Amino acid sequence: MFKLKLHWQILIALIIAVIYGLIFTEYAYLVTWMGDLFLRALKMIIVPLILTSIISGVTSIGDAQNLGRLGLKTITYYITTSLFAIITGLFLVNLIQPGVGADLGLKKDVPELAAASGDIWEIIFRMVPTNIFEALVSFDILAIIFFSILFGFFITKLESNQKDFLTNLFNSGFEVMMKLTHFIIRFTPLGILGVVVGVVADQRENLGAVLGSLSKYFVTVLIGLIIHSTITLPLIIRTIGKVNPWKHFQAMTTPLLTAFSTRSSSATLPLTIDAIESNAGVSNKISSFVLPLGATINMDGTALYECVAAMFIAQAYGIEMSVVQQVLIVFTALLASIGAAGIPMAGLVMISVILTAVGLPLEGVGLILAVDPFLDMCRTTVNVFSDSCGTVTIAKTEGEILKV
Ligand code: ASP
Asked: Closest by alpha carbon to 362, among 310, 299, 307, 297?
């Protein structure tokens, strides 16, 4: 029987969801439960998936030298692409100047921001958990990753019978998690239908802001994201990774559509791992190390958006940003994107880090609130795309033969 590929099913679900959400707004609840259930199922598998995938990945990478090389490549790729993204954003925001003359009447108070205004050191400190069980329970992904890398590394230092036992245990655990992931993936079209109907129904009145006074800001971020994902990243994977960007994009359609709909890199992670292994042909050794790390610290879309948003707020308040301040914005945007969790709207909260660093008014965040859910969809897609580009590039430089 003719069977539609999963990404087509998801695309159709997306279109139906937008139409349904706009027309039958009051009846959104009839389908949103499917989205809630789907997101719960994804969240259910994230922590055990990250734990088993990193531990099994690190044990298969083996010695300290290999791990160090892979780690260095990963971090270098993540930081470089995020910086490219931020610079693209900075260039565009200076060129288009979306905030000049923006309507300050839109200002809203965001009381929870003061509490969230982050300290840069905290992001680094957070990596080392005081209590690993607390980190597991509270979804502290960076801390879980840090612990798993150490745990996996020291497994390789054990006597051979203990080492084999634990390696097998975590490999088997990871296999179970991937089987579970496959099972949940089958429900993606229905899940996305539910999630997107909810978003459209909720955000209906904010659609005006996208078309109205915030349109210039919205378009600036969007152009930046498009440039980064259609020019910068493809150039990197083509030149360094010798990967065909179009084939790679096709291999990643399911996780990209899921990222767009769920607005969460972490929730998308199981699908990203599956697509990169099954469609792109990357080994589990590489993907299980590079992707979980990427979903948490590599957010090119968020980095670009942080920079444009901070500059937009400065422009809207009529505050001139000196070159030094703009450089400060670049670095704090990088840190904010590393520190942002892979969950919806995390980037919005992290803007307070930048505003505090350069002395801009925190209430400025109120200006950009209305269009944030839409930008969140787009930046999360770019975040996931960049993780996947990094994984294929690193796999190629490690000598793997891929399908893309
Ligand atoms: N939602 C984004 C993500 O999960 C983070 C952000 O809000 O920018 O990747």
From this structure: 310
* Per-position b or e across 256-276, b if 16+ CB within 10 A of its CB: bbbbbbbbbbbbbbbbbbbbb
pLDDT at 125: 80
Pick the atom of ligand 1 nearest to 268's CA.
Answer: 4
Ligand 1 is surrounded, with C-beta below 6 A, by 263-265, 299, 302, 340, 342-347, 376, 379-380, 383
**Residue 332 · residue 121 · CB < 8 Å:** no
For residues 58, 64, 69 and 72, what is the CA-based torsion angle, rounded to 10 degrees? 80
The domain segmentation of the chain, as residue ranges, is: 6-397
Atom of ligand 1 minimally distant from the CA of 264? 4
Cα of first residue to Cα of last residue in the chain, in angstroms, is: 28
Question: Which of 78, 263, 372 is the best mutation target for the ligand 1 pocket, counting ligand atoms within 8 Å of the beta carbon and taking the most?
Answer: 263
Report whether 402 contacts 396 (CB < 8 A): yes
For residues 287 and 390, give the distance between their C-alpha atoms in angstroms, rounded to a whole number: 10
Task: Kindly report, residue by residue over 98-132, the tens digit of the pLDDT.
Answer: 988 765 554 445 444 444 445 567 767 878 999 99
CATH class of 6-397: mainly alpha
Average pLDDT (303-332) is 92
**345 CA: nearest ligand 1 atom:** 7
